[in-house]
Amino acid sequence: MLLLTLACARSPLELAWEEGLDISEVALVDGVIYATDGPMLLGIDVASGGTMWSTEMPDAAGGMPVVTGADEVVTWAEAGVFVYDLDGLMLWSLSADMVVQEPPAVGADDTLYLVGLTLAQDQALLTALTSDGVAWQTPFEAGRPIGQPAVGADGTIYVVLTDGTGGLLAAVDDDGNRLWQTLLDGASANTEVIPHQGLHVLEAGVITELDPATGEVLGTSEGVGLTFDGAVSVRSGDGLVVTGREDEAEEFLEYTCNRTVLGDDGAAYTACVLPDDPGRTLVFDAKGKARVGDVADFAAVTTLPAPLVWDGTLVYQLDAGLVAYSGAASDVATGWPRRRADQRNTNRAK
Prior knowledge:
- The structure is a single chain.
- By secondary structure, the chain is mainly beta.
- It has a single domain, classed as YVTN repeat-like/Quinoprotein amine dehydrogenase (Methylamine Dehydrogenase, Chain H, 7 Propeller).
- It is 2% helix and 46% strand.
- It is built from 1 helix and 34 strands.
- The protein has one helix spanning 2-8; strands at residues 14-20, 27-29, 32-37, 40-45, 51-56, 62-67, 72-77, 80-85, 90-95, 99-100, 105-106, 112-117, 124-130, 133-140, 144-145, 150-151, 157-162, 167-172, 178-184, 192-194, 199-203, 206-210, 217-222, 233-235, 240-242, 256-257, 261-262, 268-269, 272-274, 277-284, 291-295, 308-310, 313-318, 321-326.
- Strands 10, 11, 12, 13 and 14 form a 5-stranded antiparallel sheet that branches.
- Strand 24 and strand 25 (240-242) form a beta hairpin.
- The two termini are 36 Å apart.
């Protein structure tokens, strides 16, 4: 119970603001939260929760916004993508020549990678899209894609497919050439591909390590509790995997922890829901040694996306909208901007 003893010496986080919104998962860049609320794209001030601007999107557009390195906000619909500047002005839109089913991932050169089905809806497809149009398309023989593609530092795009029972991980280079594919024991909407510090796949609490060059499975381990062995922070189905310092690893088997977000101080902030009190959520730092704050009033919440972290503010996305808490600057640092495919700063494998 060392954790709770240390926590008592720390002041709890204070409620800063609440906004009732029916939103998708959100992106955070330079103090602005980008979210879709029905047909509207919103820019929300992270400090106050106030809506700075709103833009009505075309019919059927929405989903999780993605912010590119070129400071463009991308929303999507089944037919393609809609691209805005950081003030909500539409810059361009394009058909993806496919049925888009998941949010796009963004490459280092700001190419958008989309997964879905062919227009005939008879085959899975990965499409590379730029402002000039479709750059290339790569089909897959079996399965349907699930989840947002993941992009590695070397530009490799990873796509998870499923036939409803088993799973498949496919690797494609940034010219659209298929490199390899590997069978997975299972795949679901919660499958996460982590293309940093090697290559890992998380599914149902099990972490599978693969060779990025060949797709060969190198080993598996249970992802329960806290484990420290690298430099990224991810969520497993049954617990939290925080990489960093092996000598300070501790297990919190009594908590269900969601994906973390890293601050620029190297600390990771997450929410862990107690199974016997789902409305009471604990917030830990990266080392698992001290609690950042104690947040209640999350009534009936059993899972939470990673908090947004920005300059002394923690923002949580709930079923009813957004709620923000303030803390000491040493507790809550400025977060990584949520751009591209960086696993440190996404709610999903973006």
